[in-house]
Write a structure and sequence with these properties.
It is elongated, with a radius of gyration of 30 Å. A hairpin with a 2-residue loop joins strand 8 (107-110) and strand 9 (113-116). It is of the alpha/beta class. It has 7 helices and 28 strands. It folds into 4 domains: 4-18 and 167-310, 3-Layer(aba) Sandwich (Molybdenum Cofactor Biosythetic Enzyme, Chain A), CATH 3.40.980; 20-42 and 131-165, Molybdopterin biosynthesis moea protein, domain 2; 48-127, Beta Complex (Molybdopterin biosynthesis moeA protein, domain 3); 320-388, Beta Barrel (Beta-clip). A 6-stranded mixed beta sheet has the order 7-4-6-5-9-8, with no helix packed on it. Pfam families: MoCF_biosynth, MoeA_C, MoeA_N. Catalyzes the insertion of molybdate into adenylated molybdopterin with the concomitant release of AMP. This is Molybdopterin molybdenumtransferase. Belongs to the MoeA family.
Length: 391
């Protein structure tokens, strides 16, 4: 059994070469750039008005003659003399001769003459050519996660396609004779299966599109064959349950016979002690505990960084911070603990219902409090490491 820091270190040292695909920009949300994006244009490509108002060629008086109008999209380039200007609108091209834009609220207009009732300065309210980015500069670096804002930014530079790291194909293998699908009638001794939909949902939240689901009964040969099939068709395999040491837990034995390289098995933590991580050919394999809260905790702490690495992210893992405890907490035993919690401002509250089988607490939590092995009693007001859950 290894420590949490050792397990995290093993995860961080895994080497993986992400695959690169070309996709339409509109289909790239949530994916990571596989190349540096170089701008092919200046943005803005012309001097641009930042306000509705008047573009002027300054002189030593406060009145100006207005000789025309420029709307956004107009190609016109008026020639101005000192003391002349044009009516202009936000986003429109500023005439080459103009050296300031005065907002319309600062102007009194009578026919084609305006009078300015406030001090004005050269170059005010004018966006310079290339103010946002210059032609030939890196617009977004390799490894950037594409968000709606990033996609909009690239679209504004004329980009239609991007090279991105391809998300992995992921298999979810569910084990357990006692499990039935939601919607079916429960018989004595049965429970509804939730881990697969829980894992599928969090994978979809990570913008993984290819998710292959397998169901296997607690029988050795079928367990082994299902894992073999999953390895042949997927980059990442998540196995739910069957990894402990019960008489009907066959996953560990099947993985061994399939010549899976074990990187670690069992972590000195609560929940999620019976966690397996290994590789087989080019596939990564996690055998997660069957208890739902244990499974989700192990996913967030250990699986998520691997997925981010497989997707080409430049940073791995959930955000961690330090918060002040709202109440004292006594940790029993010598294992590290991940406790479901709620962050409120600069404080964090450890929630009731920490059983590894309880998902209700997870459903209302927004964080995990991490207490290392050597932490025993934690007093109210103590600063604790806090892992922020995705919302």
């Amino acid at each position: 059994m290894i420590s949490v820091p050792t397990a995290l270190s093993i995860v961080s040292e895994v080497v993986y070469a992400p695959k690169v695909n070309t996709v339409s920009l509109k289909d790239a949300n949530g994916l990571f750039l596989g190349e540096n994006m170089i701008s092919s244009i200046d943005m803005p490509p012309f001097r641009q008005s930042a306000m509705d108002g008047y573009a002027l060629l300054l002189h030593d008086k406060n009145s100006y003659q207005i000789i025309g109008e420029v709307k956004a999209g107009d190609p016109d380039n008026y020639t101005l003399e000192p003391g002349q200007g044009v009516r202009i609108f936000t986003g429109a091209r500023v005439p080459d001769d103009a050296n300031t834009v005065v907002i319309q609220e600062k102007v009194i207009r009578s026919e084609n003459i305006i009078t300015i009732d406030s001090e004005i300065h050269p170059n005010q309210n004018i966006r310079a050519v290339g103010e946002q980015i210059k032609k030939g500069d890196t617009s977004l670096p390799k490894g950037t996660k594409l968000t709606p804002a990033g996609i909009g930014f690239l679209a504004g530079l004329g980009v239609t396609k991007v090279e991105v790291y391809a998300p992995p194909n992921v298999a979810i293998i569910t084990t357990g004779n006692e499990l039935v699908s939601p919607g079916e009638i429960l018989k004595e001794g049965q429970i509804y299966e939730s881990n697969s939909i829980q894992l599928e949902t969090v994978l979809q939240q990570l913008h993984i599109k290819t998710i292959n689901k397998y169901v296997v009964q607690d029988e050795y040969e079928s367990t082994k064959e299902t894992i073999r099939q999953a390895i042949s068709a997927n980059d990442l395999i998540l196995i739910s349950g069957g990894i402990s040491v019960g008489d009907y837990d066959f996953v560990k034995e099947a993985l061994s016979e399939l010549e899976t390289k074990e990187l670690f098995y069992k972590i000195k933590q609560k929940p999620g002690k019976p966690l397996f991580f290994g590789t087989n050919n080019e596939s990564m394999i996690f055998a997660l505990p069957g208890n739902p809260a244990s499974s989700l905790t192990c996913f967030y702490v250990y699986v998520l960084p691997i997925i981010q690495k497989m997707m080409g992210a430049s940073k791995y893992g959930l955000s961690r911070t330090t918060k002040s405890l709202t109440t004292s907490f006594i940790k029993k035993g010598d294992r590290a603990q991940f406790l479901k919690a709620n962050v409120i401002g600069e404080t964090v509250e450890i929630l009731e219902g920490q059983s590894s089988a309880m998902l209700y607490t997870y459903a209302v939590a927004n964080a995990l409090v991490y207490l290392p092995e050597d932490a025993n009693s934690t007093e109210k007001g103590s600063e604790v490491e806090t892992i922020l859950l995705p919302q």
